[in-house]
Amino acid sequence: MSATIAVEELRVGMYIHLDGGWLSHPFPLSSFRIATAEQIATLRGLGLARVRWAPEKSDPPSEAATPAPDASAAGGGTVLPLTRVAEAAQAAQGSDDADGERRDWLARQREAAQRCERQYGEAAKSYREAQDAVLSRPQQAGRTTEALTRAMLDKMLGTEDIGIRLVSGGGDRNAAHALNVAVISMLIGRTLGLCDQEMHDIGVGALMHDAGKLEVVDRCRHAEDGFSSAELAAYRDHVAKGVALGTRMGLSPGALSVLSQHHEHADGSGFPGRLNADRMSICSRIVAIVNRYDNLCNPGSRAQALTPHEAVAMLFAQGRQRFDAAVLGAFIRMMGVYPAGSLVQLTDDRYAMVVGVNSSRPLKPRVLVHDAPSARSSGPAAHLIDLERVPDLGIRRSLVANKVPTAALDALDPRPRVAYFFEPIAREMAALEQAA
pLDDT (tens digit, 9 = 90+) per residue, 304-337? Predict the structure, then answer.
């Protein structure tokens, strides 16, 4: 049952839901159980009159009587569409009481998938609003980008352990690329212990690193092997154009360095300034690696796309001179040998797709596994497994799509473009244990 309660009547132990979107409040989750008086003070500071709450999920009142529900506001709410992963997790819930723990875990994963998709969608919308304003209202574009970065950082820094989840938002190529680069770059910055200002610079710079392409003709916005010298020059000019636009947006010097240096290489072989690592900012060195990774996975031509596993392997094999060694090492440790989106074969010969990576256990990601149908089974063709919870099961090898049997490929449904967003690791956060 859903009800509303006046903000003045909130108490510790109440399970509440905040409407208005992920960017409208500073909490890591929109649904959570109030744990401290400080959270109540923050809620009252948001200027809300009432909030939705769930009495059945709340702790029993210790002193005051439970506030009466607001029947006029009660309702089921909006049902969010599930991702492929969430659908598989939901369908995999069994009926055997012995599987209670697994059902609870799958329910939490379903909730996490919904939340991650919703937050990705809100972030993509905010990015598009900024992008649409760059040329005509640059100052507004700068403010929107900074607000989006701040919102992501507040949630990212407020959580001890962060994972990377595959999401289905790869339709808008520009938004997906900007968010992929921003999310992964900020997570690397977090791993490397960057200060708050550097984290803000890397987020803003990553989101706007390709802003200059708005002033480049369409055919020259993505580098191709057959470019003439004039087309290559036009493509490379997006860096200078981006810095000019970033200046008009009022971006900080640190963010502008990302716009100007994201195509530079540590060995001095990049463009436009042929800078080496000593002359690049730490934020630029991070974004340069992540930008290259995402371009390998999501190029203009799908025929040239590498799998996430292949892209990581190429960066390691060919990029040890071109990129900062410490940053490259942090990137590989965080993304894992098998990044989200990788198609793999498990040690028991089943086929699977990696859907979530925990940076603390990169060789034990969460995978969506294809199970061949049998006469005894009428369950789903794919279900979710956390390899960290199954010590005897692991990944044998990574595969390209054409090496995966058709039935498995249909069940796993890999996206034509990979898109990522960050999520708190549920088992590390008590609040997430209650979210389902």
Answer: 889 999 999 999 888 888 999 999 999 988 888 8
Nearest to 360 by CA among 279, 296, 427: 427
Q: What's the whole-number mean pLDDT along residues 425-436?
A: 43
Q: What is the pLDDT of residue 99?
A: 61
The DSSP line for 118-148 is HHHHHHHHHHHHHHHHTTT-HHHHHHHHHHH
Residue among 179, 167, 172 nearest 203 (CA): 179
In this structure, are residues 181 and 290 in contact, taking their beta carbons and an 8 Å threshold? yes
Q: What is the pLDDT of residue 71?
A: 39
Distance between CA atoms of residues 409 and 351, nearest Å:
9
DSSP-derived 3-state class of residue 396: strand
* Token duo for residue 289: 């690696």
pLDDT of 141 higher than 70:
yes
DSSP bridge pairs for 421? 165
The one-character DSSP state at 19 is: -
pTM of the model: 0.80
Q: Find the helix or strand (DSSP H, E) in which 155 lies.
A: helix 138-157
Mean pLDDT of the chain: 84
Helical residues (DSSP H) of 219-365, grouped into ranges: 229-236, 238-249, 253-261, 282-297, 308-318, 325-335
Tell me which architecture the domain covering 84-335 has in CATH: Orthogonal Bundle (1.10)
Q: What is the Cα Rg of the chain in Å?
A: 23
Q: Where do the CATH 1.10.3210.10 domains begin and end in the chain?
A: 84-335
Burial of 143 (0-12, 13-18, 19+ CB in 10 A): middle
- Alpha-carbon distances, residue 361 vs 95, 299, 341, 351, 366 (angstroms): 30, 28, 17, 20, 10
Dist CA 55 CA 334 (whole Å): 39
Q: What gap in Å lies between CA 346 and CA 357, rounded to an integer? A: 16
417: burial class by Cβ within 10 Å (0-12, 13-18, 19+)? buried
DSSP 258-279: HHHHTT--TBS-SSSS--BGGG
| 428, pLDDT greater than 50 | no
- Helices in 6-83 by DSSP H: which ranges? 37-45
Measured over the CA atoms of residue 11, residue 12, residue 13 and residue 16, the dihedral's sign is positive
| 44-54 confidence digits (pLDDT tens) | 888 788 898 88
pLDDT tens sequence across 9-41: 999 999 998 887 767 777 777 788 898 888 888
Report the pLDDT value the prediction gives residue 320, as an integer from 0 to 100. Answer: 80
Cβ-contact 309, 363 below 8 angstroms: no
Residue 4 confidence class, pLDDT cut points 50, 70, 90: confident
